[in-house]
Design goal:
By secondary structure, this protein is mainly beta. It contains no helices and seven strands. The chain has one domain. It has a seven-stranded antiparallel sheet, with no helix packed on it.
Length: about 100
Amino acid sequence: MSEIIMPTEFKTTISGIELTMINSRQIMNMGGPYICSVYLGDKFIANKCIFGNFIYSEALDAIFFVRARIKWVFTICFYSIKNDQLYEFAKGFDIVL
């Protein structure tokens, strides 16, 4: 079975913040989920992020997202724009159906 790869670069804006997602690919060969590397401007934030799954918190000035730790285990992460720091919760979870 061949791997489905999405366009090499996709830009989106959330609350006026432009994110660029690159190298998107599916990880389970079942039509998703898709993971990608994410940039805020030209600043690398993280890889293995669930494609298009970003929420911006104005109160915290942070971008929240889900990241694949390993193929079937995911974690909740957030990137603090103010502190220029990535945080990842230690607790992982399995696929949510």
